[in-house]
Amino acid sequence: MIQVSRILPNIDQYSEQDILDTVAFTIAYCDDNLLIPGKVETKNILFDITDCSYKKLFSALSLLKKIFSLCIRGFPTRSNRVFVVGVGYFTRKLFIIVYYWIPEWTRNVLIMVDDVKKEMSEWYDLRNVMVKYGGTLPDQTDNFFPPDMSMHG
Fold it and tell me: Residue 28 above 80 pLDDT?
């Protein structure tokens, strides 16, 4: 999960390359330690833009595009889907308009989530999804890394 609301307030403290390196390291760490050959070989990434104003999002648009590209194209054989949660009305409508100009492979990977509980239940056991995303797992507020390996499922 990438929580944009945690990145944007600190965006001026770090270089763009440092942020991209951190995202790449985290994804590579998950690939090396969470995937199980022959059983779990791909991952889904949840990109949470809840509580982010359009002004902040547009000011960091270049960085966010690079993070999206890294998530989608940087690990093409390991990335299954990228879910974008917390999308506002305007962004959903804009996505509908530009949908057909987005390359087909990217369209298949990128999912704009409208109904969090409904769409998360199609992809996940809700016991492994935090409450704020429609599941039953308590919301995590600290100790994000390294990931807790003792989850259900």
Answer: yes
The pLDDT of residue 109: 82
With tokens 């239940």, the residue in question is 121
**H or E, element range at 34:** helix 16-34
CB contact at 8 A, 130 and 85: no
Does any domain span residue 106?
yes
Query: With contact defined as beta carbons under 8 Å apart, do 45 and 9 qualify?
Result: no
Asked if residues 130 and 138 have their Cβ atoms less than 8 Å apart, the reply is yes
* CA–CA separation, 2 and 26 (whole Å): 10
Q: What is the mean pLDDT of residues 58-64?
A: 82
Element (H, E) at 46: strand 43-48
The residue with tokens 């390294």 is 146
Whole-prediction pTM value? 0.73
Which CATH number goes with the domain that contains 32? 3.40.525.10
Q: With respect to residue 20, please indicate whether it lies within any of the assigned structural domains.
A: yes
Q: Which two structure tokens, joined as six digits, stand for 22?
A: 């951190």
